[in-house]
Amino acid sequence: MLPDNELIHRKVRQWFEIAEEDFHLAKHSFLISSPVPYRLIAYHCQQSAEKYLKGLLVYFQIDFPYTHSIERLFDLIPPQLVFPHSFSDVQDLSDYAVAKRYPDYYEKVTKEDAERAFRLASLVKDFVLSNVALN
After folding, report:
1. Cys staple from 45: which of 74, 81, 121, 133, with CB 3.0 to 4.6 Å?
2. How far, in Å, CA of 36 to CA of 94, rounded?
3. For residue 135, is it within any domain?
4. How many domains is the chain partitioned into structurally?
5. Distances from the Cα of 13 to the Cα of 22, 58, 102, angstroms
6. Is 58 inside a domain boundary?
7. 10-41 pLDDT, tens digit each
8. Who's near 76: CB < 8 A, 6+ residues apart?
9. What domain range is 82 assigned to?
10. CB 98 within 8 A of CB 43
11. Any alpha helices (H) in the chain, and if so which ranges?
12. What is the pTM of this model?
């Protein structure tokens, strides 16, 4: 049986691996020739940010609810970790998890929207990785 620390680190790595898959897919989807699936790029950016945040919470042994809300996840982050950018922008990623993917809430996702989502996901990824030390 693994010591608690090793088990936690393994779970964190799993969250990060899955988060990186979403991040990688979003990044390389910009290279698709027309039509580029901007809605899906933004969705995978949200998913990446969400999973990186969940990995961070696992690292700090903080329980979290089943949610796609970036805001709810940020609310659980230990207060000593200060996100160095505008949180109000990052919480916009939550819209791409559900609402903008279904006809009743349909809004066109533009290239600029997808690029912004990717920048925001990158900020979350960098923030998380700078606050986690895995052995």
Report:
1. 121
2. 21
3. no
4. 1
5. 14, 10, 31
6. yes
7. 999 999 999 999 999 999 999 998 888 899 99
8. 57, 62, 64
9. 4-130
10. no
11. 4-29, 38-59, 70-76, 87-90, 111-130
12. 0.90
